[in-house]
Amino acid sequence: MRRYARALVAFALAAGTVAGTAGWVSGDAQQALTGPPPGSAQWRADRAPGGGLPDPERATPGEVARFFAGLSAAEQRRLVARHPSVVGNLDGAPLELRYRANALALAAEDDPRYRSLAAPGRRILAFDPRGRGQVAEVFGDLRTAHRVSVVVPGSDNDAGTFDRKVADHGAPVGMARTLQAEAGPGTAVVAWVGYTTPVGVGIDAATGRLAQAGADRLTRFTEGLTADGLPEPAVFCHSYGSVVCGLAAHRLAVTDLVVLGSPGMRADDVAGLRTNARVWAAKDPTDWIDNVPNVRFAGLGHGTDPTDPAFGARRVPADEARGHAGYFAPGTDSLRTFVAIARGTGARGTGAPEGAGATADARVPADVSAPTDVPASADGQTPERVRASAEGPASERARASEDVRVSAGGRVREGAAR
Questions:
Q1: Cα separation of 140 and 181, whole Å?
Q2: How many other C-beta atoms lie within 10 A of the C-beta of residue 197?
Q3: Residues paired with 193 in a beta bridge
Q4: 3-state DSSP of 43-89
Q5: Strand 134-139 and strand 256-260: pairing?
Q6: Cα–Cα–Cα angle for 287, 289, 290, nearest 5°?
Q7: Predicted confidence band of residue 409 (pLDDT cuts 50, 70, 90)
Q8: Distance between the two ends of the chain, CA-based, in angstroms?
Q9: Can you list the positions of beta strands (E) in 267-323?
């Protein structure tokens, strides 16, 4: 009887995550976008070059990277021109080709929601216009970066809202741009809206259905980065994005897993995430997420608060942040710590033993010590590039950087493909 009573209490608390805790609103059920990128049927029917192309749904990012490494620059350009929607979303393809392909796809897109994404100079690493739309944008020079970060947002984010100015530092572009600007040269940050997010906070936000689909896509995306010869990233997961990261954690090859404003990661503690990454957690005292019950019952709720000491995550100070969208606001203690993590200088949590070491940067909180286990790519050495892609002779690289002709006969402005 006592167990039954506890179950009823847990169910009531879980239902509270849907029924209207402070700051939460009702939401519409969403259908997760899964499967291969648009244009895959035409890609599969294309027998050139060499008698077949890697299946965009079944080929691993490593297999994709090896395929492109075996092509000449001219063959790569032809595939970009013929199949921009596939190449632009194909994890493991060289990022330079993906930028160019997505510039082509956006130039041909007539949906006004995506017009701003086609502006010259933007580095769009993924773009899928189906449904509410998905997009990923790079800030900084991803090819030369010694440290890479990926920002995974929560509810109400899609390609159509990607450029919104409201709550700028809480939106994916604002978070990524601010982090990269503060972390400085040698770093790059990807704003990744690569999954179907909940709309509002209803059943979708209280369950793991969309998060599981997102976890699969995030895993493949990060595998694509490393297959392309880039350093393992640090991943910053906001709100429902932390549920995505929690479900993906055991498959993600990342240096750090940072959650902020998290309703839970669907794990009881850090050990339950089954990750080798350093796990960090932040929650400011004014964030309404603190009113969400940290339970998991009958599929509802996401479990333990990652900032609970019992969870075992490294603490990110967030006393200066304000609200659910304030963690990346300039001048806050949370942003200073995020910058240390993005640079690879935040190897120990803020609860490090006294005297554990002096900070390597005056802007890093004094109780974040110098790194003891930073990957070699953070020491100023360029990581070995395991991907050959478009890096043939210099003459071929020069040809690959030329404008790709649009089928309609125009050209994409050079800056739009970078």
A1: 8
A2: 26
A3: 135
A4: HHHCCCCCCCCCCCCCCCHHHHHHHHHCCCHHHHHHHHHHCHHHHCC
A5: unpaired
A6: 80
A7: very low
A8: 64
A9: 278-282, 314-315
Strand partners, 123: 138
- Polymer length of the chain: 418
Percent of the chain whose predicted confidence (pLDDT) is above 70: 74
Question: Contact, 138 vs 173, CB < 8 A?
Answer: no
- The Cα 86–Cα 36 span in angstroms is 8
CA dihedral 265, 267, 270, 272 (to 10 degrees): -140
For residue 138, the one-letter residue type is V
**Close Cβ partners of 9 (under 8 Å, ≥ 6 residues apart):** none
The whole-model pTM stands at 0.79
Tokens of 45: 């029917």
Mean pLDDT confidence for 49-53: 72
φ and ψ of 31, to 5 deg: -100, 120
Chain centroid to CA 129: how far? 18
Q: Write out pLDDT tens, residues 96-114.
A: 999 999 999 999 999 999 9
Q: How far apart are CA 198 and CA 240, in angstroms?
A: 8
Tokens of 288: 């309404």
Tens-digit pLDDT profile for residues 150-189: 999 999 999 999 988 766 788 999 999 999 999 999 999 9
Tokens of 344: 């690879």
| SS3 state of residue 147 | strand
Q: Which one is predicted more confidently, 373 or 197? A: 197
Asked if residue 67 has pLDDT above 70, the reply is yes
